[in-house]
């Protein structure tokens, strides 16, 4: 290996910049050239690539988003797009990759690396925390903190007006953000894609709260919930239970932004450093992950296999007992 290129792809996540910085600085420290590819796979196809120096990643640690920009690129899914990307890398002497993103990014990396025999190490960067092989993904901690802060604010107004709020949070098909943010904000109920909570059960819970003089209530709805998100759940509840004045808030993309938490800054740094070390050690088509407090590598094929996605049993049970 002579020259490593790093890129971010898919949805941005706080902590990606810490990871980019770690890849660049570790690579240069160990005597390799490092390049940054802009806009993920799209930049590979468009030859939107820059050589990086230690200095080019100064003062980015604290920034949300990704300084390399990101995109969801369809052109890379076809052989012509991949071929063009390969030619651009070759022209620039790039012979190894670090890809930061989610499962779409990993699928592209797996295919590209096995077609063109270019080593790649992936880093899990997504607020959803839905990847096999790592207890935490980059951005999840910051996004959850952002959600908690938003719910606390909504709680103030909900309580002042005696209202019931349905708050929808991101996470795609996973309920990780919803579950943790729900517990940490003391939500009265959490609707998760991983658990089929009947609307009648939710109504019982809210009725019980009202009977016990709860003047406001907050229901967190994961965007992957099967009842049609927060609007869907609110509609179904309102048909049978209209004790409270009801409001719906979709938190949306504010959950993706903001300065990364210390956890995400350190995780990003650790994972970027580990990704470069793995490439140098001859590892290929692997994902860096955190298990317990250890950095581990998982084969990309294994990471991409359909594993049953599970939320922590104790958190699930606790979320009901403590609500
Ligand atoms: O994967 C991260 C995520 O923010 C999901 O939680 C959400 O479903 C999706 O991306 C939104 O994607 P986009 O920003 O392309 O609308």
UniProtKB/TrEMBL annotation:
Active site: 128 (proton acceptor)
Superkingdom to which the source organism belongs: Bacteria
Binding locations of ATP: 11, 72-73, 102-105
EC numbers, comma separated: 2.7.1.11
Keyword tags: Allosteric enzyme, ATP-binding, Cytoplasm, Glycolysis, Kinase, Magnesium, Metal-binding, Nucleotide-binding, Transferase
InterPro entries to which the protein is assigned, alphabetical: ATP_PFK, ATP_PFK_prok-type, PFKA_ATP_prok, Phosphofructokinase_CS, Phosphofructokinase_dom, PKF_sf
Main location: cytoplasm
Positions with a binding annotation for Mg(2+): 103
GO MF term list: 6-phosphofructokinase activity
Cellular localization per UniProt: Cytoplasm
Chain residues that bind substrate: 126-128, 163, 170-172, 223, 247, 253-256
Domain (Phosphofructokinase) ranges: 3-279
Activity regulation text: Allosterically activated by ADP and other diphosphonucleosides, and allosterically inhibited by phosphoenolpyruvate.
Record field: catalytic activity: beta-D-fructose 6-phosphate + ATP = beta-D-fructose 1,6-bisphosphate + ADP + H(+)
Involved pathway(s): Carbohydrate degradation; glycolysis; D-glyceraldehyde 3-phosphate and glycerone phosphate from D-glucose: step 3/4
SUPFAM superfamilies: Phosphofructokinase
Residue numbers binding ADP: 21-25, 155, 186-188, 214-216
Cofactor: Mg(2+)
UniProt record similarity statement: Belongs to the phosphofructokinase type A (PFKA) family. ATP-dependent PFK group I subfamily. Prokaryotic clade 'B1' sub-subfamily.
Subunit structure: Homotetramer.
Role of this protein: Catalyzes the phosphorylation of D-fructose 6-phosphate to fructose 1,6-bisphosphate by ATP, the first committing step of glycolysis.
Protein name as annotated: ATP-dependent 6-phosphofructokinase
